[in-house]
Amino acid sequence: MSAPVSLPVADRAAVRRAAVDLVRRDRRAFTGLLLLNCLAAGAAIAGPWLLGRIIDDVRDGTSVGHVDRAALAILCCAVAQLLCTRWARLVAHRFGERTAARVRDRFVDRALALPASVVDRVGPGDLTNRGTNDVASVATTLRDAAPDVLVSLAQAVFLTAAVCVVEPLLGAAALVCLAGLPVAVRWYLRRARAAYLAQGEADSRLAEQLAATASGARTVEAFGLQRQRIEACERAIGHSRATRMRTLFLRTVLFPSVDVSYVLPVVAVLVVGGTLHAKGALGLGALVTCALYLRQLSGPLDTILFWVEQLQSSGASFARVEGIGMVPRTTPAEDRSPVGDVLELRDVHYAYEGGGDVVHGVDLTVRPGERLAVVGPSGAGKTTLGKLLAGVDAPRSGTVRVGGVPVTALPPERLRRHVVLVTQEHHVFLGSVRDNLRIAAPDADDSRLTAALAAVGAEWVADLADGLDTELGAGGVRPDGPQSQQLALARVVLADPHTVILDEATALLDPATARHTERALAAVLRGRTVVAVAHRLHTAHDADRVAVMESGRLTELGPHADLVAADGTYAALWRSWHGDSGTD
Fold this sequence. Notes:
Blueprint: H1 12-25, H2 27-59, H3 64-112, H4 116-121, H5 124-166, H6 168-178, H7 180-215, H8 217-222, H9 226-261, H10 264-278, H11 284-323, E1 343-351, E2 357-366, E3 371-375, H12 382-390, E4 397-402, E5 405-406, H13 412-415, E6 419-423, E7 431-432, H14 433-438, H15 446-455, E8 471-472, H16 481-495, E9 499-503, H17 511-524, E10 529-533, H18 537-542, E11 545-550, E12 553-558, H19 560-566, H20 569-581
Parallel strand pairs: 3-10, 3-11, 6-9, 9-10
Antiparallel strand pairs: 1-2, 1-4, 4-5, 7-8, 11-12
Helix pairs in contact: 1-11, 2-3, 2-5, 2-11, 3-5, 5-6, 5-7, 5-11, 6-10, 7-9, 7-11, 10-11, 15-16, 19-20
């Protein structure tokens, strides 16, 4: 069994391209958003300028009516700023929600298009964390952070430019004092992306450990692995905490530096401006206007810096979300239709990433309509052989063919009409029993659904209060392990492929139920090819032929009786199981 591998992470260029593409898809709203922000920022700078004019006019002996008119103009500008800002936020939130929906849809499409072999080897924590926490972080940024940052950026640019226009010398002094701000932000940004990517990776690993421990709780208890699992979880928690402390350290350096950086310009303007005013080189109104502009600058800068941390975190999340689009897709090398139902393996070798071969030179032909049982000790390569037959994994060398066509040359939707793999892993979807079954056959009527349930021994559905309409999952009935597996097997019956590969598909059922279910499946699948990866040897007893795997090699092949008579590995397994089970 291979260790879980991580999905790729998009680089900065790929993230920028994805962001530009999202903006391009809703360019009208984005253009309107920028225009409204500029209008709001323009209205914001009018007030201090008018106030400065009032001060100078009062010193020059202007009339009360002139002051009243200027004050009314200030009020109108404030109202205009309020209206433009609120309208801009409304447009921004709508833009953000639409864009977030596109991100979610694209993630789901890409996740569903991932090659089965990749999904199989990627730990559930990584893909789950990207589809939940990372997507949610990106959506929050698009909905909340982006509008605030756009508004604040427009205000900061307009206010800084206004100071330079009113009095260039004061503007120069303010810019010199603001020079520390980009230094602090640059220091932070150069470290933040890597730190947040490491935090996301650590969170995925922690989720992986917790999920593995929870799902394997019975195994952990049975083999006394509690201490090992606790230590593994504690290591994952410690690593996650260390990455979070790293991002916290970055914030504790950034925020105090910034607080000092944007107070200094106000002090500098008051000192320099006061000196110039005392010498008669600067009017009081201009000094007050510039001071107010720089005092107002703290507001948008506060907002921008408040969201910098969220933007870095969501930027790392966006890189992880976009990363699944970088997984190579298998492109069929040819477009041929299988002729017949024969499954063939010829000199097949297979190795997981970073390891040696786990399947060595297997030659095997599975005849149409045959029931073949694959047996062997744990780690012998039985499950890997099933995945190769189903096209989930591609051989390192050699060929796997169905109907004369390599399984890797068939698109997944066409391959699944010929070969279906059913494992001991199963899933019950939210919805009714009927909804869960119709995933495999959308047009199936109730009689066909009932027949499929009966075929796998799921009579318990008839005892439910609402029958096929019974809701499953949260807020409804929660099927136990055997019941969930029976629903999964009923979907196989409804899908009706010509070849089914059962990888210990009845592992969670008790022996009596498992035997009943397998007999029912045998009746339903009569005339079709069935490859059963089995750990209960009664499955092999009932099969047409038995394939014995040892250390990745096919060592024995033949009918049950012949292999028992040969007194080889299978005979030893049979005697061991027969003696323990007490059955014929």
